[in-house]
């Protein structure tokens, strides 16, 4: 992803909010995050060839925006297995976040501050348990558990049928994140 997605006012405000508007704490968090970004994507973006094994699982889906215009990602945990290569998995997570943010951009140079992530835990087995993977995912999310029909109806109402795939009560088809084409997304030369 281009660095312009990360040095804008929205990004800096996100770090301030995460640290209760404390400039000192937000600055430290931002510096730590920038260091992490350099380790994960030294060129500014994750090359899809570096995470091909993660794509093969077809576990992450990028849908059309919610009815409020926020990017929607669906992760099927039953298709995730603890990675042998932790760096590749971290790169996959960075790729997912980058592409999801970019999908919320109206034009090159910005992305949606908010995204909706559904982590589907149906059919999850012991073979799918990956404590590190769950920790990485849950540390960034505000978690709402949908476990009954009333909550599912509320989820459909909040997100919108047009964005939700049929398997989740909507009208859309699942779209693997690697198959989503964005006009302002870096392409491999």
Automatic annotation (TrEMBL):
<dbReference type="Pfam" id="PF03765">
    <property type="entry name" value="CRAL_TRIO_N"/>
</dbReference>
<dbReference type="InterPro" id="IPR036865">
    <property type="entry name" value="CRAL-TRIO_dom_sf"/>
</dbReference>
<dbReference type="InterPro" id="IPR011074">
    <property type="entry name" value="CRAL/TRIO_N_dom"/>
</dbReference>
<dbReference type="InterPro" id="IPR001251">
    <property type="entry name" value="CRAL-TRIO_dom"/>
</dbReference>
<protein>
    <recommendedName>
        <fullName>CRAL/TRIO N-terminal domain-containing protein</fullName>
    </recommendedName>
</protein>
<dbReference type="Pfam" id="PF00650">
    <property type="entry name" value="CRAL_TRIO"/>
</dbReference>
<dbReference type="InterPro" id="IPR036273">
    <property type="entry name" value="CRAL/TRIO_N_dom_sf"/>
</dbReference>
<feature type="domain" description="CRAL/TRIO N-terminal">
    <location>
        <begin position="8"/>
        <end position="33"/>
    </location>
</feature>
């Amino acid at each position: 992803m281009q660095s312009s997605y990360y040095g804008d006012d929205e990004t800096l405000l996100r770090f301030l909010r995460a640290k209760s508007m404390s400039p000192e704490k937000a600055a430290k968090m931002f510096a730590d995050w920038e260091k992490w970004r350099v380790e994960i994507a030294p060129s500014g973006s994750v090359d899809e060839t570096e995470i091909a094994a993660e794509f093969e699982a077809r576990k992450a889906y990028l849908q059309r925006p919610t009815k409020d215009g926020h990017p929607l990602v669906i992760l099927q945990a039953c298709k995730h297995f603890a990675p042998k290569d932790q760096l590749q998995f971290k790169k996959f997570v960075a790729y997912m976040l980058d592409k999801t943010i970019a999908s919320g951009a109206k034009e090159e140079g910005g992305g949606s501050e908010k995204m909706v992530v559904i982590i589907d835990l149906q059919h999850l087995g012991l073979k799918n348990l990956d404590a590190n993977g769950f920790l990485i995912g849950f540390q960034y999310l505000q978690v709402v558990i949908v476990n009954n029909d009333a909550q599912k109806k509320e989820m459909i109402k909040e997100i919108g049928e047009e964005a939700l795939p049929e398997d989740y009560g909507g009208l859309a088809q699942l779209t693997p994140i690697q198959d989503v084409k964005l006009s302002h997304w870096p392409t491999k030369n």
